[in-house]
């Protein structure tokens, strides 16, 4: 009589469950993350989020200051944390006039980010790669991803 033993091994970002018996006959079963619901996929929104997540280095200091923070980051901000964020922005992103930041905040954040994404797609298209699934053509999670979170297609060996 053989007794099956479960052993879990972490392989780069994939959890593989192997059922081992005493005679070392493996029966691998891949446990993948949940498939995302297709009714929530919107290509333009996914493209905007993808660009803002992976190509921030191409955005202007003004776009970064307005698009990344939920409050205006200006020089006379009240909190200590706000002052540290302001200094970080000034050092790492560059200077932006306080009045420009304040004037931009009444706008809708989604439309602002969409305009910035359109500008990047027009001006910096040669520096950007939008990684899409070869099977379903949806945008995947990162420029280096080889698996689609929508249809679970994998293209690691290509």
3D architecture notes:
With 158 residues, this protein is an alpha+beta fold. Helices cover 35% and strands 12% of the residues. It has five helices and three strands. The chain has helices at residues 43-54, 61-68, 80-92, 98-104, 109-123; strands at residues 5-11, 14-20, 27-31. Helix 1 crosses helix 5.
Mean pLDDT, all residues: 78
Shape: elongated
Q: Strands across the major sheet, in which order?
A: 1-2-3
Largest sheet: 3 strands, antiparallel
Structural class: alpha+beta
Q: Note the total helix count.
A: 5
**What order do the helices and strands follow?**
EEEHHHHH
Spatial gap, N to C terminus: 43 Å
Q: Strand share of the residues?
A: 5-15%
Strand tally is 3
Features of this protein?
12% strand; 3 strands; 158 residues; disordered N terminus; 3-stranded antiparallel beta sheet; alpha+beta; elongated
Topology (SSEs and partners):
Blueprint: E1 5-11, E2 14-20, E3 27-31, H1 43-54, H2 61-68, H3 80-92, H4 98-104, H5 109-123
Antiparallel strand pairs: 1-2, 2-3
Helix pairs in contact: 1-5
Short description:
It contains five helices and three strands. With 158 residues, it is α+β, with helices and mostly antiparallel strands.
């Amino acid at each position: 009589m053989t007794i099956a033993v479960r052993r879990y091994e972490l392989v780069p970002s994939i959890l593989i469950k192997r059922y081992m018996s005493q005679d070392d006959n493996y029966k691998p079963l891949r446990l993948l993350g949940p498939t995302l619901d297709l009714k929530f996929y919107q290509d333009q929104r996914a493209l905007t989020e993808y660009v803002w997540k992976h190509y921030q280095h191409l955005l202007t200091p003004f776009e970064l200051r307005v698009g990344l923070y939920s409050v205006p980051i200006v020089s006379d901000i009240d909190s200590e944390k706000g002052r540290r964020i302001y200094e970080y922005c000034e050092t790492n992103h560059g200077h932006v006039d306080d009045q420009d930041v304040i004037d931009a905040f009444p706008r809708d954040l989604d439309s602002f980010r969409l305009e910035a994404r359109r500008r990047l797609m027009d001006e910096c298209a040669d520096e950007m790669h939008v990684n899409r699934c070869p099977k379903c053509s949806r945008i995947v999670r990162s420029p280096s991803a080889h698996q689609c979170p929508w249809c679970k297609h994998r293209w690691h060996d290509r």
